[in-house]
Amino acid sequence: MDKIGKYEFLAEPFHCDFSGRLFMGHLGNHMLNAADFHSSARGFGMKYLMTINRSWVLSRLAIEMEEMPQQYTKFNVETWVESAMRYFTSRNFAVTGVDGKVYGYGRSIWAMIDTETRQPTDIFSIDNGAINDWIVSDKDCPIDKGGRVKMSDGAELIRTIDTFYNDVDINGHINSVKYIEHVLDLWDLDWYRTHAIKRFEIAYVAEAHAGDKLSFYQEHTADDEYCVRIVRTDGTECCRSKVTFTKIS
Amino acid sequence: MDKIGKYEFLAEPFHCDFSGRLFMGHLGNHMLNAADFHSSARGFGMKYLMTINRSWVLSRLAIEMEEMPQQYTKFNVETWVESAMRYFTSRNFAVTGVDGKVYGYGRSIWAMIDTETRQPTDIFSIDNGAINDWIVSDKDCPIDKGGRVKMSDGAELIRTIDTFYNDVDINGHINSVKYIEHVLDLWDLDWYRTHAIKRFEIAYVAEAHAGDKLSFYQEHTADDEYCVRIVRTDGTECCRSKVTFTKIS
């Protein structure tokens, strides 16, 4: 079996924004699905892990796009494991067109936890470190690795939202994809008429639960670059995100 | 080509609720996709209609489920045209498992509009009434047709929400699928722990736009039956919905 998985998706009409381009949240969802398809086919997917009380937990996701697929376009998400360490693995993505066109790339970092203790566990303990057989070291992912999103205390509270039934995933936590949507909802349609998302980055820090209020603190950190801290009801930081835009005409 | 289209979908992890069952909004989206795949393959899909300044507009959708597909389950959405009239066509759905299992059914009513004047147009004008070649009169869809959702003036305002970037579709209107999510968000997790959605019905009356506030008026119309009226900022009614629950243990 190929070390790189390649999965076809469609930019469905109701998954596209007012400009006819795929929403970033749905692209993120496709990447998470591709990760799951790839790992499942190779013996270390979520469904198998559930049977041994283990689970992958997404720690970081960065997506950098030249262009977003347009409504009704078929595109591929390619994914592969770039490296694995005891407590973290890094998985990359390429978003490509049927004709070899490159839309963009993604990078993600995952931990593995024990679903009973919620503590990190040794990734190499799964099938004698079998994940090492799937590492691809020679495929390029030419976007920045990212890292800790630095924010000052000067970040401003710009919105607080309630969370509802549709925000909650099978673990009872606020759905990772919904955070992406809530962050990008901080800008209005007028902004998106003149700005495309160049790079979207999110680090998942702590879980929020159904009924939690989420507060969004925003800081303008560079020209067309914004950082956002999401804080749940009890004041704990849940996520930190960085969004970079490019101006479009 | 078969008059009935059959499309396979997967109950993706991030499309499932806290109980591991597919969200109704995502099932609705799959039905709308199936409708689009079916009509496109038979010459009267959205993509073709756009080229002649026509568009299908969803007027009503009713979904009645025995059971919702569970996380990671593959299921089919079958769809067919039940009848066509000059200004409305009715399209049905069956949600089935790979083993012939029946999860539930759907019914929808569509109008066709001129995208320039936004006025209804004659469905039979497309390719000399070609839609008549695709009518299936002998396939059962054993759920109620529904009809006008009756509500009194006693309906109570229970929530008002803002609409954001991710709520808006390619036409600049609030996305039909998002209305389903917003309605079902009126009940909390505790409710869904003891109640499954037996039937969901929505009628789209007028469009709302980015930035509109949506107010939800709810009326308890029968045992485990609730009606919801959604009203936009200027007081115009946008949607009316009826949700019937069954108790689960």
UniProtKB/TrEMBL annotation, chains A, B:
Belongs to the acyl-ACP thioesterase family. This is Acyl-ACP thioesterase. It holds the Pfam family Acyl-ACP_TE_C. The keyword Hydrolase applies. SUPFAM superfamilies: Thioesterase/thiol ester dehydrase-isomerase. Residues 161-246 form the Acyl-ACP thioesterase-like C-terminal domain. GO terms for molecular function: acyl carrier activity; fatty acyl-[ACP] hydrolase activity. Keywords: Fatty acid biosynthesis, Fatty acid metabolism, Hydrolase, Lipid biosynthesis, Lipid metabolism, Transit peptide. Residues 15-123 form the Acyl-ACP thioesterase N-terminal hotdog domain. InterPro entries: Acyl-ACP_TE_C, Acyl-ACP_thioesterase_NHD, FATA/B, HotDog_dom_sf. The keyword Iron does not apply. PANTHER family: OLEOYL-ACYL CARRIER PROTEIN THIOESTERASE 1, CHLOROPLASTIC (PTHR31727).
